[in-house]
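A brief tutorial aside. Many learners find it easier to grasp structure tokens once they have seen a single protein encoded end to end. The record that follows does exactly this for Transcription factor domain-containing protein. Read the sequence first, then the structure, and try to relate runs of similar tokens to stretches of the chain.
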Amino acid sequence: MARAHRHFEFINVSPKAPGKPQTAERRKIRSHCMRGKNRRNPSAWLYENDIFRDRRVVEPNASLPPYEQEGSQFSTATRVKSPLLSLPCLVDFAVEVDNESLGLLATVFPGAMSAFPFARFRLPSHFKSSQWSDWLLSDRAYVYSIVAVCAVIQEFLLATQRSKHTLLCIRTAISQLNERLSSDNTSISDARIANVIALTLAALVTKDHLAMCIHGNGLRRMVYLRGGFESFRGNPQILVVLSRIDLCVTLSSGQGPYFPQCDPVGLVHHLIKPHPQACLSLCSWQPVIHIFDARLVPIFLDLQYLAWRINTATNAQSEGIQEYEVHAGIFVAQYRLWQLQGTMSDILGECLRVAMLSFLTTTFSLMNSRIRYDHATNQLGVLCCAIEVSTQQLRPVMLWVLMVGTLAFFDTDEEWLREKWRSGVLPLIQELQWMEVREYLKDFLWIDSCNDTKGQSLFEKLGQLVRAN
């Protein structure tokens, strides 16, 4: 009966007419009687398959916020048609949800959870689970943390100042999490780890590095107490999300990975079972392969083969690759690249290592908006400036590094970027159209479905800025 007031309400009876309600109370009676009438069943959102299925419905509406309007830079975050807004009383959340929080769950939560943890390659996937929505119905702390991260994401997309509601949501989420961590036996359960993941993402979006590191250390401790990544054998979604959080937080803070892996290949084959990797022929790489550090070559070629398989599958609409194979390839690449951190013998090798990490971040986004990684942005920028493009063979390499860096990190109005483009890249491409430049990029690492549209836009913008100066 803790939430009985949601379904029952006392009515004041008129003292002048015993047995009859007052005029003001009749409105409440009519409202109560009409609840649930002419409405859709909410189970379509809550229980149908998993939250990562695409259930967005475009509804033309002039009053939509900027990140939901057609043609905006956040156009993939189209309006979500969710019964949460129309049937709040029939969705039995684990905790009471106010109207503002309900709106966040209806409009932001589906997009955030589909865009951040899992790349949208439109590939066949067996990563089906309703756990992310089920926990909203059973875990109080999870509800608070999801409301908090949705509030943060909405302000991030709209570029607005932190509101009192958002601050209250974050404080409540942290308080509820601490209470659960100290009082119940689910302190290292999947739901509790999802709580911390949500708060880590909120800190990442707001660039709160102190909170980011605190939550990251908390996740590391919880995973350790669970027995490591091997404990997620029955829940590979959590494994993938943890590795993405590890990638983002590390690139943003500059600290080492929270979950270093001695044998990422063996672990991912054991847990996710990807397709056996096979390297492409080195024939097309002979002109530039010698400039790579020998330890980077196998990682680079595995990623290049993965990109080729994704492009082949998505362009031909075939089923030659499963989505979990993409996640496995990214997982292996990021931890193998981190194993080489601090071991590169030259600036070019370190530049290519960081550029490959930046390429991995282009495979996912936060509702089609780029996450900011302060440390990695500065690091790659300094490395690019330090490299002197002294030979013709280095120009395609610098083209790819600057393009991928701009997709992931840089802003096109940065003076050093335009100058590097003018001196190191323009002599190679000044007479070329985008499709010809794209072939250079595909000789390195380039995923059509992730990089083409934005890549062409950035290429044209850079060209205009360079010509204008």
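Self-check: The two ends are 70 Å apart (CA to CA). If you spotted this yourself, you are ready for the next section.
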